[in-house]
Design goal:
Largest sheet: none
CATH superfamily: CDP-alcohol phosphotransferase transmembrane (TM) domain
Strand content: under 5%
Structural class: mainly alpha
Number of domains: 1
Shape: globular
CATH topology: Four Helix Bundle (Hemerythrin (Met), subunit A)
Number of helices: 7
Length: 222
């Protein structure tokens, strides 16, 4: 199966960022910081970011969104490095990520609504729908034995775009919201297509196997 479409943030860039954070992960490991505690700290920070947006402090909100995203970026690495990776920890991480995205986009939507920018507020709702569909399509595909970790805009892109947009200017934040609204929904469709291609390939393979098994023995080559 061919790889999926290229992401807006190249894998090489993300890998380099994680290597840059490796000393921090080792420090947290030595300090005995719990990966689950770091996961919960991420959603708490993002909740404070949402409050900052509602209080019309977008730059503060942007900083906190990126900080919360940093916690999310290293909690998995911390769990593996400390030998504390568990299935519940993975479930907690995925669940908390959904709450974090809701809080972040709720705060951003509230910022635009209170600023009387109803168009950007509506785009935030579309971004929220797209973000949840990106997560749902992957989870549902994997529950059916398929892979769907592809797409141009995954969670790291959404965090970086929205966080940096908020840091720069409300207009940049509005542009970032529109980019997420469009590309997150495109990503969900890309994951559906990727899963469909896998399922079709599996079905064709099974069909070929049944054809071979139903050929009479006398007609088979020696």
């Amino acid at each position: 199966m061919k790889s999926g479409p290229r992401r807006l943030l190249p894998e090489r860039l993300q890998s380099a960022f994680l290597r840059f954070l490796a000393p921090l992960v080792r420090l947290l490991t030595r300090l005995g910081v719990s990966p689950n505690l770091l996961t919960l700290a991420g959603v708490l920070i993002t909740g404070i970011a949402a409050a900052a947006f509602l209080l019309q402090m977008p730059r503060t909100g942007g900083v906190l969104v990126l900080l919360g995203g940093l916690c999310d970026a290293i909690d998995g690495s911390l769990a593996r490095n400390a030998g504390r990776a568990t299935r519940f920890g993975a479930l907690l991480d995925s669940s908390v990520d959904r709450y974090s995205e809701f809080l972040m986009l709720f705060g951003i939507g509230g910022f635009f609504f209170l600023s009387r920018d109803t168009l950007s507020a509506a785009a935030t709702f579309l971004a929220l729908c797209g973000s949840f569909m990106v997560s749902y399509t992957r989870a549902r595909a994997e529950s059916l034995g398929l892979e769907a970790k592809v797409g141009v805009m995954q969670r790291p892109e959404r965090i970086v775009f929205l966080g940096l947009g908020a840091l720069l200017h409300p207009v940049a934040l509005s542009l970032a919201v529109w980019l997420v609204a469009v590309f997150a929904n495109i990503t969900a469709l890309q994951r559906l297509r990727f899963a469909f291609r896998q399922d079709s390939a599996l079905a064709e393979s099974e069909h070929e196997k049944r054809k071979i098994n139903t050929v009479p023995f006398s007609n088979r080559g020696c």
